[in-house]
Amino acid sequence: MMSALLETAKRWRLPLVCCAWMLCLSGLLLRRGYETFLSANFLPVIALAALALLPLALCALARRATPRLGLREMLGTAVLLLPLVYIQHSRGATLGSGAFNTRYIGAGLGGGGSAPGGLTAPDGETTLLTLFMKPEEYEGKSISLVGMLTKDDPQVEQLLGAKQPILFRFAINCCAADALPLAMILEGVDAGGLQNDDWIGASGTFRVRDTGKQKLPVLENAAIHPVQQPAQPYLYSTLGVF
Amino acid sequence: MSHTKRNAKDRRAGDSPAGNPAGGPSASAVFAGFALAVVCAAYLVPFWAPDNRIVADFSVVFSSIVLEAMPFMLLGTLVGGAIEVFVSRERMTSLLPRSAWASACVAAALGVLFPVCECAIVPVVRRLGGKGLPAAAAIAYLLAGPIVNPVVGLSTVMAYNFDWRPAAVRLGFGYVIAVGIALVLTRVFRHGSLFVPGIDQHACRGECESHEHEHNDHDHHDHHDDHDERSHDHECGCGCGRDHDHGREHGGGIAGRMAAVCNHALDDFMATAPYLVAGAALAALAQTCLERRLFLDMASSPALSSGAMALLAVLLNLCSEADAFIASSFRGLVPFSAQMVFLIVGPMFDIKLLLMYRGLFRAKAIPPLAALVVIAAMLMSGILEAAGAMQ
């Protein structure tokens, strides 16, 4: 019984890994699920990878049984299949206030920290990216935008001396690992009925506040309301660079 | 006994679950068993805490890093397989200058013509090394390729609001540092002690004892065609570490060669991808748990900020084509020199690469390599500070 299992594992280990990854990438392509993790620019790369796995799977199937199946081979196989579980688990998920707290370095406008160049917002829509790119154009104007809410960021509390609710959104160039949090302070808002990570729409007057250390974007006399998560939760680069 | 056969035996001994000759399990078997238990536990975490925010963020970041890197690594294995099958050892060695420093200088600039990211370059260098690329050239290409290439130059220019100077500093120092480290490492480590078995030597260059023939005057594939009928099964010296019918695979026309490309790619994929996944898991853990502002607190002086940014680059494991966007977000918070340290160290040495290098270098070569990268980046930081660059 044991030796039969071992022989089966030897025979099917490589085809299993290749086919499992090929199916995973194909599934992500068909439902555009890769956009949970990657920029939309990765479509051809993922497609190419799924395609490249096909001949590898065929080669694995055509091979004779793998001569060795020790702990190292079992470990390698287990490690290679592990991401598939996490990819399945994260489908449709987005980075939230936890990631915001670990990544936010108080990136404001101009002085201390700044949004990188090259990131551009979707046409015609006012987003945190457009505000960060051209703050002077929006100064004193009424604006509306969509983002996630966090109410207890320690960095903002340190800068302003008081807890303020924040609207934030992540901008990504390649993938969620390089997601950069862009944030705006909401003034005059009672966010009591809302939770961290809720998606909100906010409107008010845009100002740039100089704290001495940083220039922070602020939405004065803001009004907020809960909204549905947008189809594209992240703000993406349109550079086409990966 | 030939070098290759000895290496093959070593490899089998290391892989054996039976352990050491004394009867007990070997240290590597114990480690593999422990690691297997950890991986099995990792399978259960998403089911055990499906709604936990930290687990959710870890899942997204881990999946992102793997999905971003895996296609490039996969394509790298195919390129490596094609190099193994279609490029002869003689052709490879004739393409580069004979001296170590000259070949390193040329190889460090190859990224301009063949831009490869750090995930794809490891399997490519595995095959190039096996084909006789000099060690200095292999290391120079490995370290410089992910930095000195047009895509990275363009992304750096864009990240810094179309200022070309950060890109020039990054590419220039990246080139010099890569060449310097390549030359130092090849001086320190004697031939054959730098790379894992099968990479810096070749089974069939006159050392193979399974057959006697003239090796020097013909193409590698001609050699295999010559031996189609004999079809010698032995541990291949091309770095794949697999017993396979070398002669038959590389012969048999274009279809046979394409099959050989895929077979080599499959071997490289299985040899390198587990390290990539393990590195991605550690990087995701660091990204999920470490607060970036802690690194700003550490950055009270230029030297400390450079050290902090080097550490951040090692922990974040960002792609070299995207890391400039993160570095540029630190403008005004850390000196320019520290931002450049971040951009130089990351593509040469981070957690993911540290593990992937296990598929390329011998274990004892990796700490000196990492140390040299950090030291060189700190030197660069000092030079930039002294020159008052971008102040």
Architecture blueprint of SSEs:
The complex is a heterodimer of chains A (242) and B (391).
Chain A: H1 2-30, H2 43-62, H3 71-89, H4 97-103, H5 128-133, H6 135-138, E1 142-150, H7 154-160, E2 166-172, E3 180-186, E4 199-210, E5 215-226, E6 235-236
Parallel strand pairs in A: 2-6, 3-5
Antiparallel strand pairs in A: 1-2, 1-4, 2-3, 4-5
Helix pairs in contact in A: 1-2, 1-3
Chain B: H1 3-15, H2 27-48, H3 53-86, H4 89-95, H5 100-108, H6 110-113, H7 118-130, H8 135-144, H9 150-159, H10 164-188, H11 220-226, E1 233-235, E2 243-245, H12 246-250, H13 253-289, H14 293-298, H15 302-316, H16 323-328, H17 336-348, H18 351-356, H19 366-387
Antiparallel strand pairs in B: 1-2
Helix pairs in contact in B: 3-7, 3-13, 5-8, 5-10, 7-8, 7-13, 8-10, 9-10, 10-19, 15-17, 15-19, 17-19
Note down, in words, how this protein is organized.
By secondary structure, chain A is an alpha/beta fold. Chain A has helices at 2-30, 43-62, 71-89, 97-103, 128-133, 135-138, 154-160, and strands at residues 142-150, 166-172, 180-186, 199-210, 215-226, 235-236. Chain A has a 5-stranded mixed beta barrel with strand order 1-2-3-5-4. In chain A, strand 4 and strand 5 form a beta hairpin. The N and C termini of chain A lie far apart (49 Å). Chain B has 19 helices and 2 strands. The radius of gyration of chain B is 22 Å and the shape is globular. At the A-B interface, helix 1, helix 2, helix 3 and helix 4 of A face helix 1, helix 2, helix 3, helix 9 and helix 13 of B.
Brief digest:
The complex is a heterodimer of chains A (242) and B (391). Chain A is an alpha/beta fold and 242 residues long. Helix content of chain A is 38%, strand content 20%.
Biggest sheet strand order of chain A reads: 1-2-3-5-4
Unreliable spans of chain A are 118-122
Strand content of chain A: 15-25%
Question: What is the SS-derived class of chain B?
Answer: mainly alpha
Largest interchain contact: A-B, 80 and 87 residues
Number of helices of chain A: 7
Share of helical residues of chain B: 55-70%
What is the element string of chain B, with H for helices and E for strands? HHHHHHHHHHHEEHHHHHHHH
The biggest sheet of chain B amounts to: 2 strands, antiparallel
